[in-house]
Amino acid sequence: MQVTIPILKEMFKECNKTYFENKLKMCNFSLYSSTTEKGRFTTGRIWINKRLNWTEETLKGVLIHEMVHYYVDNIIGEYNFLFPHGYKFIKVCSNIKKKYGYEVPMSDTIYRYSILKQKESLTITERLEILCLGPINYLLSWIF
Ligand SMILES: [Zn+2]
Fold first, then answer.
1. pLDDT tens by residue, 98-141
2. Distance 137 CA to ligand 1 centre (A)
3. N or C: which end of the chain has fewer CB within 10 A?
4. 14 CA → ligand 1 middle, Å
5. Total structural domains in the chain?
6. Residue 96 belongs to a domain with what CATH number?
């Protein structure tokens, strides 16, 4: 499905009501092209990769992910630009999971891990990368 700004606004309203107690003010949206990201958040603005072949479910996942960034920035007021998926981000996600049973996708990047997994032959560095990526991300998220 082709993503459009009106679709995003509609979905934002729904998700705001369902998962964020309508606490979020409508933000700005931009569509962009990226080979490494599904979406991104900058203050007051959610960016969605228009090149991806979205389904309603995958789009909703990334939108809610970006809305959690927005929530951390706007409602909690302490956005960590260096480690945006750190402790506060995880806390909001686990509250959503507890209250509404929805699992917010933890990443808005196109997984390097899954790209590597699909390759037929891997260099030594790429093998090391696969081994290290998971634990490093996990550790960083608890430290910051
Ligand atoms: Zn993110």
1. 999 999 998 887 766 666 766 778 888 878 877 777 677 667 65
2. 13
3. N
4. 20
5. 2
6. 3.30.2010.10
